Each structure stands twice: as structure tokens, then as C-alpha cells.
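Follow-up to my post from last week.
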Amino acid sequence: MNRKNLTLFALVALLFIGTGFFQSWNSSLGILNMALISAIMALGVNLQWGYAGLFNVGVMGFVALGGLAVVLASAEPAPGAWNAGGMGIVLGLMLGALTIGGAILVWRGMSKGKARVLVLIGVLLAGFFAFRAVFDPAVTAIEAINPAVQGNIGGLGLPVLLAWPLGGLLAAAAAWAIGKTALGLRSDYLAIATLGIAEIVLAVMKNEDWLARGVKNVISLPRPVPYEVDLQQSPGFLAWAADWGMDPVTASSIVVKLCYAGLFGAVLVALVVLSELALKSPWGRMMRAIRDNEVAAEAMGKHVTRRHLQVFILGSAVIGVAGAMMTTLDSQLTPGTYTPLRFTFLIWVMVIVGGSGNNWGAVLGGFLIWWLWVMVEPIGLGLMSAVTAGMADGSWLKVHLQDSAAHMRLITMGLVLLLVLRFSPRGLIPEK
Amino acid sequence: MLNALVAFLNFVFVPGLAYGAQLALGALGVTLIYGILRFSNFAHGDTMAFGTMVTILATWGLQSLGISGGVLPTALIALPFGILVTALFVLGTDRLVYRFYRKQKAAPTILVIVSLGVMFVMNGLVRFIIGVEEQAFADGGRFLITAGDFKAWTGLKEGLAIRTTQGITVVTAVIVVVALFWFLGKTRTGKSMRAFSDNEDLALLSGINPERVVQVTWIIAAALATIAGVLYGLDKSFKAFTYFQLLLPIFAAAIVGGLGSPLGAIAGGFVIAFSEVTVTYAWKKVVTYLVPADMAPDGLLQLMSTDYKFAVSFAILIIVLLFMPTGLFKGKSV
Amino acid sequence: MSEPFLIGEDMTGGYGAADILHGCTLAVEKGQIAVIVGPNGAGKSTAMKAVFGMLRLRGGHVRLAGEDITALTPQARVAKGMAFVPQTHNIFTSMTVEENLEMGAFLRRDDIRGTMEQVYTLFPILKDKRHQPAGELSGGQRQQVAVGRALMTQPKVLMLDEPTAGVSPIVMDELFDRIIEVARTGISILMVEQNARQALMIADKGYVLVQGANRFTDTGAALMADPEVRRSFLGG
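User reply:
Got it. Predicted complex:
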């Protein structure tokens, strides 16, 4: 950390403080919490791209898996759901895994030829129908239970903080499966493969209602911090708020947000420290050596694909943790709101703008770009009212411009990305 | 038996053919850009959306002037205008954005990230100008053959309906593909594009001007994107976001066919389209006609719900990449 | 004495920080054959690329017919009447033989059929295979396509980088014969060759390069006769 970088961080801090003064501390903290989470996601992408040059555009999928972990681990258990269909689901999934495993065995074990292809198709088809036969009734049974609020398998009711590492694990498991198949591919094939995986993860989460209610959303997930209502009824808190001269409603909301910020901040600091240690370790040096010259590293006896798999899993796990944190912050899982522009490409803007290969850069990018993403809308609106001030009220252009101001943020993000790539391709805090 | 065939044609073959033609046109653009500029253009889906948007605006303009295409959709008259504006826009982005990296000989991954930036801007522009709502802009006759007419002619229980847009899609796609292959195979500029794609250094040694090749490529890609986008929009409807989602099947089609190979892009488009339709179609109707009445199936006989159509294109993509890394028609491997 | 038709004089330069060429001079007279030989890593190909402008020179000049072309791009040199056949990747593999030739003539706006006939007369096998993709041809035929493509610009100078690399001895002799035929039409030829002995036999002028500098320069026959050249570079 040198002077220039500290100044950059100070400037970004000023943005948040400014928002606090001029808008409200409540919204400033709201942006900050999401910025902390974004910074962690950016850290995960930076692990993959900055350390190892892996082009992962499936960030959204890992974020969503992290969110799913929260539901599975911490949501209220659904009484009867396990008895109704739990076994069927587990058996079905096992059949599915067996089918794929069997197919791989057939492919590896049999010699080339028509027989192998036929057996392979046979195994896959038989497995698929067996899977559907076991799986479908179980799903129907589960979805029939109390469909208005549940109709899913339900959670384990564990403390929500435990769901965060679980989110990381779930994402890591998915990353292992993806990495095993796709990491040998060229960089832009990997990009397209990850893009596809993310869409599939989301399609599963939207459609498999038994899992997390699909687009019907899971709401009121447990929180690791007190509820505003409880605070507002606690006499101690009311007295404390009065001491500070704050209205209890605002105070409670700020305190809750600060609690979140503390938790998220702790995770972020821990991850930054770990990432920095990893980067400076022999492992990190080797990763970068592989990134800079794969052929030479391979010739020196490094297992390039295995290292890539490692770092891909690690980065995805970090993103998964962030996804779990985000779902915790929202207290709900809403698969319908996950879009690649917001959850994949925006994170990429953060990493590129911050400085790929540099953890501090990724964190800075996370803060700066998230602030910008939120603030572009009001700024755009302001701009549009200024532009349209001279126009007659009710003219279609004026109405259209004001209505469309919300879409300014995509254009802004694209321009920011293009400008940084052009004029400062190594980002605000370049790799050392 | 005939009824089963007609049901198959009506629900699987005709929609698959139209969708395949749309994907093929999109994949052709991706594959040309890859062959000449050597990167996967993530902004292609949004280029389609942009071109379609301009065409829709022009269509509305024409309609307000009282001009219409009669039986055919007015959008076909507006199409050249859409292509022109899109081509100019794309040439502008090349001049302002991509050319810099080309001169630097930047790595393909950098160009992909740059195209993400362009994608953001184009996506934002489209939303800014036309909004996120669904826009229907198809006019003219609805059907070439209606189910009712078909039943009356043939006396079959099952009807075959072919929508005008499906017919137009297939006819336009055939014309465009023939024109493109004539251009690539017979004209001096087209041959120079193939030469450049085949061996860039040798093309330079032969005096082929790289900037001109690149410009022509962008113009063709813009035209293909606009045509594909408009056909898709006429067939389904226009919504800014669906075009972004088309990126996945389009890339899948281009890669399955072999990136850089125009013929492969077309084959890939139909492979992907027919697989998607086949896997997500509920076969109950077809099977019911085929088997004796007492054996008629209870279930829908649908392999996967339509929401998983992306998974289908994706699975094919992965299988092809693992077993035939250069695609069906030997594309470029590096 | 008048200046040679094409001369790369006192060329110094390389790809990165280190120079590969150290004051190297190459020249060829009109209608003659000049051959560059030397051990591996002597900078033979680099010297060719320098003459063709594919390498930035830190010192020295390249002149064509008295005109200084040091600053021109390779493409501009093509327009000036120079043609270059790289050692590898020297054909468009996915295009037919005829299309390869057409691409060679890309800069020309006049009728190219005459030149194409000349190429087919020089390499009759190419006429039979003119509608086949060039990538499907044998090694020797590919080299013929490569030379043919370069001839389509009607160059005054033809530069060949190891035209016989990887072809059988019979095909090599055949190729050398064709190259002599090309030179007889008044085209100057500058080529790098690994098969030093055979190449010097057809050379009007030979250059022996060692470590990026001229070691011996003489007529081909004189070099062949020089005992030191024979011992060090021609294997006795």
C-alpha cells in the first residue's frame, strides 16, 4: 500500500461519506454493505483472472448457488417434506449421478466403435428414465405440501452464519464439476462454457420449486443481526438512541446496517489477508508464472490444469460465500432477479477498473463501481431533468428521456470499462 | 400415421426450421468476426437487438406514413434502413474501440473483455431508446397455411399451420446464405476475406488491406445480425433482454459447427435448434397417433421442460468441445 | 560500378533488445540468383526479413533500383515489385490453388490470366490441381503454389526463405530448376537455403553469414571452390 493507493481508497471513502451527508447515512450504509459484498465477489474473480488468467463469466451462477445454500441450511424446516419425498429426491439424484458415472466408465472402459456409442446411449437413456421415474413423484409430493408458503424441501434451520461457508462449499463443488470438464478448453471457450453453466444454474433454481420455491421466492430467511422492530421495542436501545438525538426508527435501521457492515467487513478483511498471503506464497508465484507462460510452466513440470482447477475452485468458493452473504443481507432468495449483466459483467467491470491481479485493486473496484452503479440512476435523472428543463412539459421526448434515465447505468458502466481498458488497461491499482 | 407426421411437422419441424435459420444467421456473424478479427464477440446479441430496434423504429415510421408491406410485414421494407444504421454504428465502434487493440495486437481475451464493454453500451442504448417492454411489430398476413385450411384440404384430424413469419424467415435465410456464399466464394473482396481468415500474414504479403477486410466483415456481421434479429423478432417478439440470452445458443451453434467456418455455423444453428425443440417438446400428441388407443401415454412425454432449453444447447456444446474441439466443420483451433 | 538492383547494406537490428544482424550486407543483380547460406542461428532468415521490412533496422539501408525503401512497410514493398515466400505457412490452405494465385495478384487491377498461364506453364501440375484446396497438396506442390502465388504480382525481386525445406531431393532439384527458369525471365532472386551445396551450384552470388555478419561473399562457384568454405560450411 503506497501513498497513491491510500489516496484512492480515501477518495472512495469520501464518496460514501459524501452520500451520508448529502443523502442519508441510511442509504450510504446500504450502498456500503452491498459494496462490501461486491468487493468479495471481485476478489473471487480476481483470484481466477488476475492470478491465473481464467476467464470466468459465470459469476452469477456461483452467486446464486451461495444464495441457495442459505435457503438449504438456514430456512425453516418444512415439516413432512422429507418424509413425503426426501428419499425420492436423494435416490433420484443418486441415480442421476450413477448414470453419468456409468456413462464415463463406459466411455473409458470400452474400446472405440459403434458398440460403445450404443451402450453409452443406452446407459444414458435408461438412467434418464429411471431418474425421472423416481424423481418426479417425489417432487410432486414435496410441492404439494403447504404450497402457499413452502412446497419445498425446506432448510435445516441452522444458524445463518454457518450458511456462508456452506455457500462457499456448494459453489466450490459446482466449480469442481465445471473445472473438470471445461478447464482444458481455450480461454474464450471457457468463457462461453461458464456463461452457459450460470444460465443453467439459474434455470434450475427458477424451475425446481421443490428446491427453493423457484420464482415464488423464499422470504424471511433468518438474520445474524437483530431485527429493527425488536430494537425499537427495547427500552435500552430507545434510551441510547435518544442520547444520540436520533429518531428510533432511523437509529435502528442504521445500527442493523452497521452490524451487517461489521460482519461483512470482517469477512472481507480475512479474505484479503488470505489472498495476499496466497499471492506472495510460492503457490501464488507459481500461479502467476503459469499465467504468464503456460508452456514454459508445463515444461518445468507444473501441473497446469490441476493448478487451474485449484484456483478456479477457490475463486468460485469466494464468490459463493459472497452470494450467501448477499442472500442473508436481503433475507430472501429471489432467483428471478439474477441477471448476468448485474452479477457477472458488473463484477468484471469492478475487477478491470480496480486493477486485475491486485487484491486491493479488486476491493477498490468493488467499492467504487458499486457506488457508481447505485448513484448513476439519481445522477442520470438529475442530468435528464437538466437537459429537459427547456422542453415543453408533456412533450414525448421529455417524458421518454426522463423515463429512460434509469438505463443510463448500463451505458455508463460500458463506457467506464472501455475507457479504463483503453487509457489505463492495468486498472487503478495495477499488479505489482 | 399421417396425423403423427403432420403433428411432428407442425410442432417440431417447422418451428425448429425457423429457429434454426435465425440461429444460423446469428452464428454466421459470430463466426465471421471470429475468423477475421479472431475473438468471440460477446456484443453480437446486442448488435442483433440494436439492429432490430432501428428496424422497428423505421417500421413505425413507415406505418405512420401509411406505407405497408401488404401481406408481408412492413419490417421487411424497413430492414435495409436498419442494416445501414447498424453497420454505421458497428463501424463506429470498430474505429473508436476495437481498432486500437488490433494495432496493439492485443490478446483475444482482452478483445472479448472489450466486447463486453461494447455489449454494455449497446444494451444500455437499446433500453434507453426503446425501453424494456415487449414490442410487437409484425403486421401483414398471419398465416401462409392455417390449421383449419390444412385440415379441410387433407381431411386429416391434425392441422398444419405455417405462419407468414416462419415462411419469411426460411426464405430470407436461404437468400442471405446464398448471397453470402456467393460473395465469399466468387468476389475479389470475399476471397480476400477468406484469405485473411486463413493466413493473416500471407494475406498482408499479398497486399490485402487488413483494415478494408475488417470493415467489410463488420458490415456483413451487422447485416446478418440485423436480419437475424428482425426475423427472430417477427417470429416471436422483440424484447431487449431475450436477444442477450440468444447469445448462448448462437455461440453454441458457431462452436459446434467450428468457429470460423461459415458452413459450420449454418449446420450448428440447425443442430442446436432441432435439439432444443426435440428435447423440450411434449411428444404425447405424436405418440398418441402412432400407438393403439389403449396404449396412449398418460404423461406429456416431455424430456425436459422448455425452461431448460439453454441446457440443451449447452450440453451439445460441451460434448462437441470435449470430443471434437474444432467443431463439426474443422474451425480454427487457436 | 553501378549499384546492384536490390541491396540491403550494413543492416543492423533484431527483434528485441539484442541485435541479431551486425552490419550485414546482401545484394542481388537483375535477373541473377543470390543465395544466403550459413549455420543454424546465423540470422539468415532474419536478414531476409530485414530486406523485406519485417524487422526494424537500427542501422543500414535497403535500396531497390537506387530508391531508398528502408522505411517502407512490407505491403508497400510488395507494391514496389518485391515478393516474399515465407518458409512456413506460405499458402492459403483452405483455398483452391487458383484462388491462391488470385490472392497473389490481389493488388493488380489488370488482366491476370496471362500471368496465371505463365505460372501454370512453369508448374504444370498446378494446372491439373487448380480447383483443389491447396492444403490437400503434397509438400513439393505446396511450395510450387507458394512460389506461384508470389510470382502473380509480377515482381522484379523474388525472395524465398528455404523453399526446399522438408521436400525430397528429387523435388528439390526440380524446384531449383524452376527457380533458374524464373531468374531467366529477368526476375532477381534472393533466397535462404539450408542445402548449401546445391544452392550454391545455381547461385550467381553467395553469401555465407555467421552470427549476423558476412563471413564470405563471392560467386557461387568461387565459394564452392574455396577450401575454407567447403571445410566449415559444406561438410568437406
